[in-house]
Amino acid sequence: MLSPDFTPAPFVLLALSTWLVWCLWSFFRPRDQHSLRSVAIVVLGDIGRSPRMMYHAESFAQHDFYTDVICYGGSRPIPSLTRANLDIRYLPEPPRWLTALPFLLSAPCKVALQVFAVFLKLFATPNPPEFILVQNPPSIPTLAIVWLVAHMRGSKVIIDWHNLGYSILAMRFPKQGERHPLVRVAKWFERTFGRSAYAHLFVTRAMRDHLVKEWDLQGVKVVLHDRPPKRFHRTTPQGIHELFIKLNESLSREPSLKGFLTTSEPPYSSAFTASNASPSDPHLSNTPPPPSSAINPIYSEVDAPFLRDDRPALVVSSTSWTADEDFGILLDALTKYEARARTTRKLPKLLVVVTGKGPLREHYMATVASLQKKQKWQHVRCISLWLEPADYPVLLGGADLGVCLHASSSGLDLPMKVVDMFGCELPVCALRFGCLDELVKEGVNGLVFDDADQLAEQMETLLGGFPQCPRLDSLRANLTPTSDVARSPPHAPEEVWEPWDDHWARVVRPIILRDVRANEG
């Protein structure tokens, strides 16, 4: 018989605590069951502005993996991501009021929201993915979340090292740099949660060698250089014509272009192309007829578009408008080019098109407008355009010269924009930094500059006498693909220049279709 003083509360509390502990252990305990041929790709950024991760998703799906992309929205993804076995699930955007807070307050709040959102998305799939591919950076909080979820669901983690997150954070604190306490914490976090993975993919050999040496990375380690997909190629005059007819309305709204571009009669001619179907244009009276090859069925042989000799030289610079790209170098170089062009007839007009979105865009484009107005530029115009994914390679393939201002925060990554340009057979002038020579070969596929003076001189050298530019044509010839590309030796497979699809299949496919950890030495 129970004592009158007996109370069941402690026993109930003990039973409830035991049950909660058991539930937590059951929830967090490691599992070794997952769906074969499935992958979750985590991108804490706008998927439409993450070409490498879109290409990853496309390649996984093409190899019959069910592909689940967890990302932020914003820009339209490439059309090939619309597949039956591929699902894009968007994360909720952080509330706008966070942007009004100081970085030291907004950053922790944003991280907390991202932890909750990514965790829920990874657990929303009824079957655990076989692989979780995560883009780094950002490192916080994705590396920790992916590590935890993979531990709980029995998935294998693949880290795609684009750069080092802590080195980007250090740019916010220029006085202290990597000595800043927050940067030190970020570096510890990135090293701790990034050290162990099923596989590590690196954009450069320099990054692989550095991280293997400094952080003793565990897992399969391979270099997967950025490569353009097969849709990146040189654009025909017909393609250039159709692009600029499409862009005609947006270009006509640019006040600085009034009176700068050559006259045209859409749809028969544009500022860069023409056809014999526009006889009223006095600039075209002595233009030879186009070749009869590669003619679009919508045109007759007589009025197929061709490049006009009085067009401006088209220079393209792709940028994310962030602090790791000094756009001021390009503006200084254009100022010097303008001054030089006024003293010689050998230099053509320049239309510089800057593509991309980012936080510093408004600042720099306001500076451009001020320069053009105050200095009364006659030979140079610089405009900013945001292109649809399908139009971007057409613009690159129709341009005459590319300019890259990327200055790596770590000195270990390479600019994807240059890879895209090379895929379109577009020579580049690129700002020099640590491992750039893995991509840009001086005097072979481009030129390397250190400051605005050198960039201005290179543009004058390459574009002098336009449209007949022997030096530029020589660089372009070295980018022309051949059908009998010599294969590199087995010990250096990353040296092969090939489209993304072939490169990915050769480097990544063996990793995901068999367990190679036993062979890792």
From TrEMBL:
It is an enzyme of class 2 (transferase). Its EC number is 2.4.1.142. One of its GO terms (cellular component) is endoplasmic reticulum membrane. InterPro entries: ALG1-like (IPR026051), Glyco_trans_4-like_N (IPR028098). Keywords: Endoplasmic reticulum, Glycosyltransferase, Membrane, Transferase, Transmembrane, Transmembrane helix. Residues 271-286 have a biased composition (Polar residues). One of its GO terms (molecular function) is chitobiosyldiphosphodolichol beta-mannosyltransferase activity. Residues 53-223 form the Glycosyltransferase subfamily 4-like N-terminal domain. The chain crosses the membrane at residues 6-28, 97-120. Gene3D superfamilies: Glycogen Phosphorylase B (3.40.50.2000). This is Chitobiosyldiphosphodolichol beta-mannosyltransferase. The lineage of its organism: Eukaryota, Fungi, Dikarya, Basidiomycota, Agaricomycotina.
